[in-house]
From TrEMBL:
PROSITE patterns: DPS_1. PANTHER family: DNA PROTECTION DURING STARVATION PROTEIN 1, GENERAL STRESS PROTEIN 20U. Pfam families: Ferritin (PF00210). The gene is dps2. One of its GO terms (molecular function) is oxidoreductase activity, acting on metal ions. The lineage of its organism: Bacteria, Bacillati, Actinomycetota, Actinomycetes, Propionibacteriales. This is DNA protection during starvation protein 2.
Length: 165
């Protein structure tokens, strides 16, 4: 067995994210991870009217958050930024409101998860121009997530909304 060091080529990517771009992506990442976690928490613990539909709808929200966090983290790597999705980082940085403990009535769960989605969308909208200004190739990710999550907030909030007359 040889003790020689194997030379591995070093790949230099053509674009490196600035601190502002990296921080914007990181804000989105931690909020998407938090949304995935609280979405599952609500999914497991909702009780009451329309349980089945809401149980399934929460999985849609979780899926968007999970897929979105992976896409954001991989885009970060593609632009020479290092994503940080460690639990302590997510807990310290996310702006998603704390999930209720224990069983939650479906109407309360809807109100909560809509507020959690709105927190993520606020972050997406807040960082959009920074990301678009520095890396227009990445802004589509932010825009797609905004559209998907706003649609979910609408779907869910319609469960508890009263008609406007």
């Amino acid at each position: 067995m040889s003790t020689e060091t194997v030379n591995t080529p070093h790949v230099t990517l053509s674009f490196t994210a600035s601190a502002a771009l990296r921080d914007s992506f990181q804000r989105v990442l931690v909020n998407l991870i938090a949304l995935e976690l609280v979405g599952k928490q609500a999914h497991w613990n909702i009780v009451g009217p329309n349980f089945r539909d809401l149980h399934l709808n929460l999985d849609e929200v979780v899926g968007i958050a999970r897929t979105g966090s992976d896409e954001v983290a991989e885009r970060m790597r593609a632009v020479n930024a290092t994503p940080d999705g460690r639990p302590a980082t997510v807990a310290a940085s996310a702006t998603v409101p704390v999930a209720p403990e224990g069983e939650v009535l479906t109407t309360d769960a809807v109100a909560y998860i809509v507020s959690a989605i709105e927190a993520v969308v606020a972050t997406l909208r807040d960082v959009h121009d920074i990301i678009d200004g520095e890396d227009p190739s990445s802004s589509g990710i932010i825009e797609d997530l905004t559209v998907q999550l706003e649609q979910q907030a609408w779907f869910l909030s319609s469960e508890i909304r009263k008609p406007v007359r």
